[in-house]
Specification:
It contains 18 helices and 6 strands. Strands 1-2 form a two-stranded antiparallel ribbon. The chain has 3 domains: 13-103, Fumarase/aspartase (N-terminal domain) (Fumarase C, Chain B, domain 1, Orthogonal Bundle); 108-144 and 151-197 and 222-356, Up-down Bundle (Fumarase C, Chain A, domain 2), CATH 1.20.200.10; 360-455, Ribonucleotide Reductase Protein R1, domain 1, CATH 1.10.40. The chain has 458 residues and is mainly alpha-helical. α10 (231-258) runs parallel beside α12 (322-346). The structure holds arginine. Arginine binds next to α6.
């Protein structure tokens, strides 16, 4: 035990169980040991312990690390958290000198340091997985620059788009997510070690060097804030939630588009599931889970924000509640991202079904644009085109079958060349300004996307 000198009675057993965090914070054993090794060197440079003592402590800590890595570390009932467990074992190995390691340090600056290191590493892992998903989107979309499909707003047929354009829309959501992770990581990379329990350290520790030795960018600037700041956890949880939300939107598209009523895509056998009762079923279970997991990611974020709200200054034990939410969100996404990536990689698009779903009514805007090109104000052209849609409905035909005389009765600007409007590919091809759905614009977009990935070393 790391404390207890002033106590007469041992902690109540149920309180001990409530208090223990070793069950989950042992996952940051590597960060805890790295922090201690750097700290031992820092206090030896500061003249608090001798170089020889520091070497003994470092060698002992390396042995503890080894035991963890081999799965040989033996937990004891009094190991309430990872910091206690490592120091207890260190002292068993190196003897009383192990007790010098904690000089000027508190578990408050220690845990904040460990957890930041763990979070930085987790962010790197998530970024790596998101980049793989983006690669899958790139490779799937490369074959579909020309493939036409209905584009929707309000989930109602709106205008023809190209399938690559639809897929790439998710690429850019993930670009923003990666950039948010970069940004969150930058603020996470500040080192609280050397803040002590709350007031700072009385020893001449070079905190800049200590921060750098651990891979941080800089030390934190205020010890009270240093031990209690968990903004980095909240930011990570927010970005992970937003990634979950983006995945859930992609998942919902896949659920809808793989429904036989649409038939736009077919999920690979490995990534769809059957029904125990209805032999014909192909359920997009992994995608429904992607949709559902967003709920728990958001729950984790909400939980932490609620823990932080109204905490008094400096460290409070409530802060121990910052672990399980982030562990769960990271585990959730690390489980989900590879599956979504594989689903995207193996999706089979069905261009015929997409083409069949195109309806001439989706060209009503193009029809209005035709009149605009002939000088009619758009607002008026919108009205005329709407009346053409109504006339087509009365006649029970598509827009292209409304007789020219009927069109001309609605506006004298209609001419025989209006027939050229009723072409879905031409409609898409006209939208070639930057960011539009025209195959040539989408090819440029795709090249920009690939350049972005390459700039990330992907
Ligand atoms: N397990 C604790 C946590 O995660 C470590 C810090 C404990 N500090 C204390 N003053 N009791 O927050």
């Amino acid at each position: 035990m790391l404390w207890g000198g002033a106590f007469e009675a041992p902690t109540d057993e149920q309180v001990r169980r409530l208090n223990d965090s070793i069950g989950y914070d042992r996952r940051m054993y590597a960060e805890d040991i790295a922090g201690s090794i750097a700290y031992a060197r820092a206090i030896s440079t500061a003249g608090v312990i001798t170089l020889q003592e520091a070497e003994q402590i470092v060698a002992g800590l390396e042995r503890v690390l080894n035991e963890f890595e081999r799965g040989e570390f033996q937990l004891q009932p009094a190991d309430e958290d990872i910091h206690t467990a490592v120091e207890r074992r260190l002292t068993e190995i190196v003897g009383a000198v192990g007790g010098k390691l904690h000089t000027g340090r508190s578990r408050n600056d220690q845990v904040a340091t460990d957890w930041r290191l763990w979070t930085m590493h987790a962010i790197d892992q998530i970024v790596g997985q998101v980049l793989l998903l983006q690669r899958a989107i790139l490779s799937q979309s490369e074959a579909h620059f020309e493939t036409l499909m209905p584009g929707y707003t309000h989930l109602q047929p709106a205008q023809p788009v190209t399938a690559a354009h639809w897929l790439l829309s998710y690429f850019w959501m993930l670009v923003r997510d990666v950039e948010r992770l970069d940004d969150a990581r930058r603020r996470t990379a500040e080192c609280p070690l050397g803040s002590g329990a709350l007031a700072g350290t009385p020893f001449a520790i070079d905190r800049v060097a200590l921060a750098q030795a651990l891979g941080f960018v800089a030390p934190t600037r205020n010890s009270l804030d240093g031990v209690s700041d968990r903004d980095f956890v909240a930011e990570a949880l927010f970005v992970l939630s937003l990634i979950g939300i983006h995945l859930s939107r992609l998942a919902e598209d896949i659920v809808i588009f793989s429904n036989p009523a649409f038939g736009f895509i077919r999920l690979d056998d490995r990534y769809s599931t059957g029904s125990s009762l209805m032999p014909q079923k192909r359920n997009a279970d992994p995608m429904e889970l992607a949709r559902g997991k967003a709920g728990r990611l958001i729950g984790n974020l909400t939980g932490l924000l609620t823990v932080l709200k109204g905490l008094p200054t400096s460290y409070n034990k409530d802060l121990q509640e910052d672990k399980e939410s982030l562990l769960d969100s990271v585990d959730t996404l690390m489980g989900l991202l590879p599956v979504v990536t594989a689903v995207v990689h193996t999706l089979k698009l069905n261009p015929e079904r997409m083409q069949q779903a195109l309806d001439e009514s989706m060209l009503a805007t193009d029809l209005a644009d035709y009149l605009v090109k002939r000088g009619m104000p758009f607002r008026e052209a919108h009205g005329v085109s709407g009346r053409v849609v109504r006339r087509a409905g009365e006649l029970g035909v598509g827009l292209s079958r409304v007789p020219l005389e009927d069109l001309q009765a609605l506006s004298p600007l209609f001419d025989a060349d209006v027939a050229t409007i009723f072409d879905f590919a031409a409609s898409a091809a006209r939208r070639k300004a930057l960011g539009g759905t025209a195959p040539e614009a989408v090819q440029r977009q795709w090249a920009d996307a690939r350049q972005w990935i390459q700039s990330r070393g992907g």
